[in-house]
Design brief:
The protein has about 190 residues and is of the alpha+beta class. It contains 4 helices and 7 strands.
């Protein structure tokens, strides 16, 4: 059953939860350190969009409501936050309403955007949040005069590659040792229309 969620801009209080989600979504060595994640959030042109539900995502998805996702892209920021993501308390409890997020770098000078990461808790996948996050990131890219979106995915991550193919992304090259020696990635691109 679908889970009701909304998309909203990142707030520095989200940092600890986003880092914990990233640790759950990726293997050690691929998951970002706190320093790396904070650095990505502070990059010029970076925008982070958070998918959040009104209920605790630790509950069974079947026990949650069945509303369609809502989003107003006009409410999303076009610049990275001015506060440091590291200002969030490191011992803060995880916000169990956040089910995923995307970080997109919009670079109008190169007419391209780059998806730094897309993270959705595994038990909340296939409910539309990843698709909604990608659509919002792509709209931000269009609004920033970008004509394409780029990203990388591990060559052995078949579910991610299938997801990106359904979103219209195509493999353009292989990046050897992208994550670590022997851990390769595909570079994918989607032209924006």
């Amino acid at each position: 059953m679908p889970v009701s969620f909304l998309l909203r801009p990142y707030h520095p209080d989200d940092f600890e939860t986003l880092w914990q989600i990233d640790q759950r979504c990726f293997l050690p060595g691929i998951a970002y350190s706190k320093h790396e994640l904070a650095s990505f959030l502070r990059q010029r042109g970076a925008v982070c969009i958070v998918a959040e539900t009104s209920t605790d995502v630790n509950r069974s998805p079947a026990s949650q409501t069945t509303e369609s996702p809502t989003e107003s892209l006009t409410e999303l920021p076009t610049e990275s936050p001015t506060e440091s993501p590291l200002e969030a308390p490191t011992e803060s409890p995880m916000n169990f309403r956040i089910l995923g997020f995307v970080i997109v770098l919009v670079n109008p000078r190169q007419a391209a955007a780059y998806i730094t990461t897309l993270d959705v808790l595994s038990r909340m996948r296939r409910l539309g949040a990843g698709t909604a996050l990608m659509a919002a990131a792509e709209q931000l890219a269009r609004d920033g005069a970008c004509t394409a979106v780029h990203l990388e995915a591990a060559v052995e991550n078949e579910s991610a590659l299938a997801f990106y193919a359904r979103q219209g992304y195509g493999i353009v090259s292989t990046v050897a040792d992208y994550y670590a020696p022997g851990a390769h990635a595909y570079s994918l691109t989607k032209p924006l229309t």
